[in-house]
Amino acid sequence: MDSKNWQKAVEFHGHVCPGLAVGFRSAELAMAKLEVSRSADEELVAIVENDACGTDALQVLTGCTFGKGNFFFLDHGKQVYTIASRAKQRAVRITVKHMAFHNPELSRLRGAVSSGNASETEKSEYEALQKRHIQNILESGEDCFNLAFVDMELPDRAVIRRSVTCDKCGEPAMETRTVKLAGKTLCLPCSKKEIG
Prior knowledge:
Helix content is 39%, strand content 21%. The chain has six helices and nine strands; from the N terminus they run H-H-E-H-E-E-E-H-H-E-E-E-E-E-H. Strand 6 (163-165) and strand 7 (172-174) form a beta hairpin. Helix 1 packs across helix 3 (54-62) and helix 4 crosses helix 5. The longest helix is centred in the middle third of the chain and has 19 residues, at 120-138. It is globular and about 65 Å long. It starts with a helix and ends with a helix.
């Protein structure tokens, strides 16, 4: 585990948590399997299937972001990450093995703390156990993950699109995200209101 990059991920995310650790370790393992390093531009592509904490770690480690057009979100509610290399034309999909990091005592204490019913002793136990749990995730190996090369068609590189003005709200929108309706150019929100 690269502690310098871990600190960068924590700073970017804002706090330390198990989800961030899972995303961090997933990215490390997938990038090692692909034999790639952080993307300066669009050399890598990342596809995440959740919008939880781990995705922040993935952005920090891979260099993939929405702004660069090489970070894609699929709303599947699964802690699954796919990292692809354009140069190698290969992709690795990684997910945590079922119950790999399950800790019943941590779950019990988390419930007590989040409900406000934890004693001071339980709060201290929770903090210590959570810290160990995160460290265990960060030090885990491939045996805790399903990690495999997958075939996938890589998305095109990002393209800067022309903006046009919505005839209803007057706001500029990417031309490819507008609709022609009754001779008017409408942004997507205005077109939905118009259709009703």
